[in-house]
Write a structure and sequence with these properties.
The chain has 286 residues and is an alpha+beta fold. It has helices at residues 13-17, 35-41, 96-103, 153-160, 168-180, 184-188; strands at 45-53, 58-63, 68-73, 80-86, 89-93, 112-114, 122-129, 142-145, 195-203, 210-213, 222-227, 231-237, 257-264. Strand 9 and strand 10 form a beta hairpin. The longest helix has 13 residues, at 168-180. The radius of gyration is 20 Å and the shape is globular.
Length: 286
């Protein structure tokens, strides 16, 4: 709340506020992903592809099910905005809101990136995170968030009255359009809320507004995902650089991001299974 309350607290205000919270979606019954298989498999990998994402641009990549995706900081501290789609069906895409509801505001090793309805299944699982040491800081910040939507030219237009074409939303739109041979409007409809790779964010303790601060990422740090299904991905090197001051302009120092795709050794994934689509009947009571 940004405005002073207009109503006096009732006599039982303290009792109402002191009610114990309940976790909305306990995850103990989720089908577990076989992390022990991933940890063993990632010890013997062969690189099959790489994409170097230029500063203030985005790049697409493909990762078949059973491959590892490694996103690495190179040259300087830089955050990235990640979109994921089913490689065979762009309508199945990463659902940051449900991922956040299940795993929390920030992701790390063992957390999955879920797709939207009606498929709702793990698309990728975090297999390694060199920034897992960061945890939570005194401001309530952490890294790799699923709360920020992505910087975009529409919000920038509202806030500043100026057009800027290298926001992450536009970067992702251009890259997807070029990769898939789509016009800009069709591609833009597929761009969605992101995983903010390396970004350090939280909610302010007073007004509970979304904040960012300088990312702790340094060259050589990486976030690694295991592809649970055949994936098309797109990563934008945010115009905010390390997001220590702002974004949506050319003021910040920006650096490339490296995306590498690795295949596993024969037999390394024995016992792993690709998640099926959600089994809900879709009758919706009718």
């Amino acid at each position: 709340m940004k405005y002073p309350p207009q109503n006096s607290a009732p006599p039982d205000a303290g009792a109402r506020r002191s009610v114990a919270p309940v976790i909305c979606y306990p995850i103990e019954t989720l089908p577990p992903r076989p992390m022990e298989i991933y940890q063993k498999a990632r010890q013997d990998l062969t690189k099959v592809d790489e994409v170097l994402v230029a500063p203030r641009e985005a790049g697409c990549f493909s990762a078949p099910a059973g491959h590892f995706i490694r996103m690495t900081s190179v040259e300087g501290p830089q955050v990235g905005d990640l979109n994921l789609w089913n490689a065979h069906d762009l309508s199945e895409r990463f659902y940051s809101g449900k991922t956040r509801a299940l795993h929390g505001t920030h992701l790390s090793t063992g957390d999955s990136m879920w797709s939207g309805f009606p498929q709702m299944r793990p698309m990728a699982t975090v297999s390694f995170d060199t920034l897992d040491w960061y945890g939570w800081d005194a401001d309530g910040g952490s890294v790799h968030d699923v709360i920020g939507t992505r910087c975009d030219p529409y919000t920038n237009q509202v806030l500043s009255g100026t057009e800027y074409h290298h926001c992450c939303h536009s970067n992702l739109t251009r890259a997807l359009a070029q990769h898939k041979g789509l016009d800009l409007q069709e591609a833009e409809a597929h761009v969605h809320d992101v995983l903010n790779v390396f970004m350090c964010t939280g909610f302010s303790l007073d007004t509970h507004q979304y904040f960012m601060k300088a990312s702790p990422v340094r060259p050589g740090d990486y976030l690694e995902l295991f592809a649970e299904i055949d994936l098309l991905g797109c990563l934008s090197a945010c115009p905010g650089g390390d997001c220590s001051t702002g974004h949506s302009d050319d003021a910040a120092a920006c650096y490339p991001l490296l995306v590498e795709v690795f295949k596993t050794a024969p037999g390394a994934l024995d016992g792993w299974w690709s998640p099926d689509v959600n089994t809900y009947s879709r009758r919706h009571g009718l």
